What does this fold into?
Amino acid sequence: MATATPSKTKIPFDLPPLHPGQGEVYQSDARYKVVCCGRQWGKTLYGAETCIEVAMAGGAAWWTAPTYDNAKPGYRLLTHLCRQIKKGLPGISERKTDREFHFPGGGFLAMHTLSEPDNLRGDQLDHLVVDEAAFVPSIYAWDHSLEPMLWIRRGNVLFISSPNGRNWFYELWMMGQPDTLTYDPEWQSWRFTSYDNPYGDPAELDKKKKRKAKQVFDEEYLAKFLDDSSAVFRHVKLASVAQKELPLPDHSYIIGVDLAKQNDYTVFSVFDAKRRRQVYLRRINGVNYTEQAPMLAALARDYNGATCVVEENGMEPFLDMLDRTGVRYTRFYTSNASKEAIVRQGQVAFEQWGKDDPDDADDTLKITLLHPDSDEDSDEQANEMRAFEMKKIGESGRFSYRAPYGQHDDIVMANLFAIDGMADREGKPLTVDHYNWLGR
It folds into this structure.
């Protein structure tokens, strides 16, 4: 069966028009397309339209993403569009449990996550979309499960993602560039920045550029492939998929607390201790300690009597006030040595997201952060975590860890205090083997 072509199908309502960049990709005859793009370029809408048009032409189309959290935007958009089409085209059936839509001409559209790729074998596909491809942990899902499904029907694939260092997505992107040694004429790749979306306001991006770390803006919005080997915390974006949660019965919580000094922010970072998942984040500025102590105590009570981990350096007045609230807390004394130790704990936690084989990841160490779109504080968290840097101290062989000049690391430290608190709570301190595995 020949691959279903999307351009010959009439949809009974008008889909949003493609902007020039999307149109350029659409017009390409390449069988394998790789689109590296900045945030809000329009990849989700473009990918959804290609899936729908193939399914309406009688073809088999899949929409895939690394995890359920990553897949939610695409799921919502595809479901909305298909239900709108269904109103003007009788005979479309929706199978909610399977996340599938079946069309009168025999075509279908299915939505899947890639968290367990070995469970996806079997279908023959005309069209495949891999959304947020750079955040699939390894090339395994493509090599072993997805690509074989395209063989019989000579199906095509669209990889769409913002970059995530120079991982396997970067290698596929290079295959579509004519001036590279790995170029394959069946492949074509593009790089578009957020500025290339004509429906966005460039002035808003200019504002983000001023307040974000350069490497963060370059990767997130300019879609540049950066080498993240020098980053203190790698795979932060992959780990940032959680949503805010209210306290759950019988769950224990840890609150990492970094108190403001001079122009800094006070940060309360709440984690579900068992799931090692961030559920709440708050930055405070311009509020004195006499007000912050009862605010922290109220937050701890709300989260089932959470235990707080508070830096004690120079904070005796605040701790005295905290004592009077009755909140449970442990003190953390920050020195070069203790800071290096908790930074390494954080490194180990985030490295679990980058294991080539997900089975090798240790879920008792892995940390999940709030998605940057959760709120302004969560967006700042992504900025701080990825900008955090280390610098060698003379010839001592030791390192200092801090935010780049003029930036903040309050959220970073609150998170590290919480991670340290969870290690203590679970009685599972990190071992020398974990540190050696980092190769640092």
About this structure: The first strand starts at residue 32 and ends at 37. Residues 1-9, 425-440 have pLDDT under 50 and may be disordered. Residues 372 and 380 are 8 Å apart (CA to CA). The two ends are 53 Å apart (CA to CA).
